[in-house]
Amino acid sequence: MSQYRDRVTKYKGTSFSYFNNTKAGSVFDLIYVDGSHHCDDVIVDAIKCFGLLKVGGIMIFDDYLWKYYPRAIENPAAAINAFLRLHKGSYKLVRLYSQIIIEKTCDRH
Predict the structure, then answer these.
(1) β-strand partners of 31
(2) What's the domain count of the chain?
(3) Maximum Cα–Cα distance across the chain
(4) 96: part of which helix (H) or strand (E)?
């Protein structure tokens, strides 16, 4: 990554603190969602991050198949699936495996 250090922004901290401190108008080409693995946190990260993603940008959800909590609704896949339903028509699926990769095709319609 060192050769791209001028083009990469790494933020270390909680999603909550990041979203509270992000400058208005910030947009990103690539967002990798891999924070908390609890459904409630994942859906907030997904919605907030998608708003920061430029049209044509790529968003990667990690741990799609991760199953830790006994109730399926509490795991990341439940949140990711809900997000995808909510934003249907605003993205195209690039790849689906243990991660889901989407490309944003438009802002909310």
Answers:
(1) 59
(2) 1
(3) 43
(4) strand 91-96
CB 90 within 8 A of CB 62: no
Q: Is residue 99 part of a domain?
A: yes
Q: Give the number of other Cβ atoms within 10 Å of residue 61's Cβ.
A: 25
Containing structural domain, residue 99: 26-104
How far apart, in whole angstroms, are the C-alpha atoms of residue 100 and residue 95? 6
Q: Which three-class secondary structure state does DSSP give residue 53?
A: strand
**Domain CATH number, residue 66:** 3.40.50.150
Name the amino acid, one letter, at 104: K
pLDDT, tens digit, 9 for 90 and up, residues 87-97: 999 999 999 99
Render pLDDT for 44-89 as a digit per residue (tens, 0 to 9). 999 999 999 999 999 999 999 888 888 888 889 999 999 999 999 9
CA 12 to centroid of chain Cα atoms: 16
